[in-house]
C-alpha cells in the first residue's frame, strides 16, 4: 500500500530529537518492513502550547492550505491507499487527514491518538471535537497503552481499536551486556526541559541523596533548555559521582547503556518512555515509578522495580535493593533484554502492524 504519513505534533524530519520524533520514525520503518510505501505527507506542525481560539483558527487556515495542496497533488498523481496519522491529541489534532481521507474515499488510521474528557472546555474544545471525529472516522485507532485505549473507548465507544505495544529498533543492542565491577554505574537518559522531565530529575536527585552511603556513579545523558536547573538539582551530591555527557547519537547512547548497570528514571508523566525499552534491551534492570504509561514498558518485579508515584523514599529503597542484590539484578537484566528483543522489537511491531492492517485497513479500502 501507498501510505501518506503525518505527525501533527512533530514531523519525523524535525531537527529537535524527542520520543515523539523517534516513534514516528520507527512507525515508518515498521510500515516499510511490512512492504508498504510510506511518504511524509505534510510538515505542518499543528501544535498549540497555549489554548486560544486565535491559535486554533490560524492552524485551521494552515491546514486548509495543506488540504488544497494535497488535493491538487493527488488529483494529478493519484491518492495514496491510506492516511496514517501519528499522535493526534488536544494540543496537536490532525486537521488535514480526515478531510482528505473522506474526500478521496481512502482509509484513515490513527496511532497513539488520545482523548481526555476533562479537556472539553474553552479553546481546547474544538481540538477535542476534531480528535473525536477522527477516531470515529478511522478504520482503526492503534493504541500503544491500555490507558489511551480506555480513554478513547469511553469517549468514542463506536470507534475501532487495536493494540500495538511501544517498541524500539533493537538492532543497536545486539552486543553483550557487561557485568558490574566496582562502584555501581547508574544511568539516566532524558531531555532537560521544564515540566515532567524536570520533575523527574528533581525526584532522582532527592532519591540519590538517600543512598549516598553506598558506592555508585550516575551518568546523565541529555541536554536542553533546563540544563542549568537540572545540574543545580544535583548540587548536593558529590560532583565526582556525576558524569554529565550531554546529548549523544543513538549509537553512542547504546554504548553508554551497555557500560552501565542500572537504569534509574522516575518517569513523571511519561506516556511510556522509549528509553526504558532501550535500557532493558541493553540488559539493564530499571527503577521507575508505577505511573502514567511506564508499566506498559517495564514489568514490575520481573524486569525492574516500580514504586508509587512521588514516593522518593521508596524509589531510593528500590535502588538500594537492586544494587545490594547481584542475583536479582542479573535475573531482572536478563528478563529485560529478552522482553524487549523478543516482544518489543521493530520486527515484532511490523508483524503486529501487518495483522492490524489485514484486519481493519485493507478491508476498509
Automatic annotation (TrEMBL):
A Pfam family matched in the record: Glyco_trans_1_4
Task: Keyword check for Glycoprotein, yes or no.
Answer: no
InterPro entries per the UniProt record, alphabetical? Glycosyltransferase_grp1
| Highest taxon above the source species | Bacteria
Molecular function, one GO term? hexosyltransferase activity
Q: Record's Gene3D superfamilies?
A: Glycogen Phosphorylase B
Instruction: Supply the alphabetized keyword list.
Output: Plasmid, Transferase
| Protein name (record) | Glycosyltransferase
Amino acid at each position: 500500500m501507498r501510505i501518506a504519513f503525518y505527525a501533527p505534533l512533530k514531523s519525523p524530519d524535525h531537527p529537535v530529537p524527542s520520543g515523539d520524533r523517534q516513534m514516528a520514525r520507527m512507525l515508518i520503518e515498521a510500515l516499510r518492513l511490512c512492504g508498504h510505501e510510506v511518504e511524509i505527507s505534510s510538515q505542518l506542525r499543528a501544535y498549540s502550547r497555549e489554548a486560544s481560539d486565535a491559535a486554533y483558527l490560524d492552524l485551521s487556515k494552515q491546514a486548509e492550505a495543506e488540504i488544497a495542496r494535497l488535493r491538487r497533488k493527488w488529483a494529478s498523481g493519484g491518492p495514496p491507499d491510506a492516511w496514517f496519522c501519528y499522535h493526534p491529541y488536544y494540543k496537536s489534532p490532525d486537521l488535514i487527514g480526515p478531510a482528505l481521507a473522506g474526500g478521496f474515499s481512502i482509509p484513515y488510521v490513527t496511532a497513539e491518538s488520545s482523548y481526555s474528557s476533562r479537556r472539553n472546555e474553552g479553546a481546547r474544545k474544538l481540538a477535542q471535537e476534531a480528535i473525536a471525529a477522527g477516531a470515529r472516522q478511522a478504520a482503526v485507532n492503534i493504541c500503544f497503552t491500555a490507558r489511551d485505549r480506555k480513554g478513547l473507548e469511553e469517549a468514542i465507544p463506536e470507534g475501532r481499536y487495536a493494540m500495538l505495544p511501544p517498541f524500539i529498533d533493537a538492532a543497536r543492542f545486539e552486543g553483550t551486556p557487561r557485568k558490574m565491577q566496582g562502584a555501581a554505574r547508574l544511568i539516566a537518559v532524558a531531555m532537560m526541559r521544564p515540566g515532567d522531565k524536570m520533575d523527574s530529575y528533581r525526584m532522582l536527585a532527592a532519591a540519590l541523596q538517600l543512598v549516598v552511603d553506598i558506592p555508585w556513579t550516575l551518568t546523565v545523558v541529555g541536554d536542553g533548555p533546563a540544563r542549568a536547573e537540572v545540574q543545580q538539582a544535583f548540587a548536593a551530591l558529590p560532583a565526582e559521582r556525576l558524569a554529565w555527557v550531554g546529548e549523544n547519537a543513538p549509537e553512542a547512547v547504546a554504548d553508554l547503556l551497555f557500560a552501565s548497570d542500572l537504569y534509574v528514571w522516575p518517569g513523571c508523566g511519561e506516556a511510556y518512555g522509549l528509553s526504558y525499552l532501550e535500557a532493558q534491551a541493553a540488559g539493564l534492570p530499571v527503577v521507575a515509578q508505577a505511573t502514567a504509561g511506564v508499566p506498559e514498558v517495564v514489568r514490575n518485579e520481573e524486569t525492574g522495580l516500580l514504586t508509587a508515584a512521588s514516593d522518593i523514599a521508596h524509589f531510593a529503597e528500590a535502588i538500594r535493593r537492586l544494587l545490594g542484590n547481584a542475583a536479582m539484578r542479573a535475573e531482572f537484566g536478563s528478563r529485560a533484554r529478552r522482553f524487549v528483543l523478543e516482544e518489543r522489537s521493530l520486527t515484532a511491531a511490523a508483524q503486529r502492524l501487518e495483522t492490524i492492517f489485514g484486519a481493519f485497513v485493507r478491508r476498509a479500502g
